Amino acid sequence: MKNTLRLIAAAAVLAIAAPAYAQGGGGGGGMGQMSPEQRTARQKEMLFKDITLDAAQTTKIDAVFAESMKKQQELMQSGGMEAMRSPEGREKMQKLNADRNDAIKAVLTADQKKKFDENVAAMPQGRPRGGL
Question: Where are the annotated segments for Disordered (predicted)?
Answer without folding.
Answer: 25-44, 72-93
